[in-house]
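[audit] Reproducing an earlier prediction to check determinism. Same input, same settings, fresh worker. If the tokens differ from the archived copy the diff job will pick it up downstream; this log only records the rerun itself.
[audit] input (368 residues):
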Amino acid sequence: MSSLRSVPQVSANATFSDYAVATATRLLGSAGVDVEQGTRVLRRMLSPWGARQIGTRPGWHSDVCADGSPIEFSAAFSQEGLQLRVLVEALPERLSTSSAQEAALGLTRGLTRDFGADGNRLAKVSDLFLPDEDPAGFAMMHAATLASAGGPAFKVYLNPNAHQGMTAVERTREALDRLGFGKAWTAVGEYAGRGFDLDRIVYFGLDLADGPESRVKVYFRHYDVSPTELDARMEISQQHEKGFLGEFCRQLTGSDSDIRPQPLVSNLTFTTAGGHLPVSATLYVPLWLHTASDRTVRDRISAVMADMGLPVSGYRSLLNQVARRPLSAGRGIHTYASARVQRGRPRLTTYWSPELYDRYPPARYQRG
């Protein structure tokens, strides 16, 4: 596969801020979202590490994208409107998880101070996910949601495998209990009915907000499972409409096989208002290893969106603002697509890598 790897499509001398702000400006303008506010949010999320040069390979191989890029843009389409999102992993000063924790906590403080993000719930579980001694893996990722109405909303993704002193299962259960969702563990255990080795907890998501609708999310990576089986299990969410996700996955990947080069991902979402049962369940389909080019992925997503009654032209317009090469010349732009249907209302999100280091990213998250 080495012959397929590309040189960076952004100058190695450019900074992360150079790339991200220029891309966000195009996306925000195309979507009709406040460009000034959106770029101000992004500049804060990139401070201070955004001033570094991108280089030719990642110094800190971020968990955000398969090629190690620490920035990912995405767009959520629904009948209610469009949301733009950006996900970043604050790059550490030193190549260690401890340093990554310092960078992540600095970003959290900045979002709290400058944009009113609420870190109270994060503070209740921070010692679980940001241990002082021997932390491992990534520290924390931050996401911002931007829409044409209202201010920005923020979320963090935490690492259930942050320390060997607790398993991901133990850590997640303790975090749910501290946040007042102890009874939700019954739903989590039922959902992972094949066992936590095959239905592996991989992220713990938390809105940086405090209220009855503020979300807690548990993310799973599923090995050797059919989307039809996952679809049936997602009925644990009372709002889930069964029967859509199997065909959704088949259309996007071109395959009915349960054995995949990248495992499927899903989440269960809990809120105080929803009680101990998940208010939603979402499937995430990895895309970059199922076809030779992003052009094919674009066509597949367009067909799915048309079937769902969602705006194909809006998706294609935003994709044109992200892509910096012909879509036929690689397969690394589209990382995932996610979907759910609740009360007859479909929602699809597509996620885009900047391909700062590779337009043919390798497989990851294999069993082990």
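[audit] rerun output stored. Observation attached for the diff report: The chain is about 30% helix and 20% strand.
[audit] end
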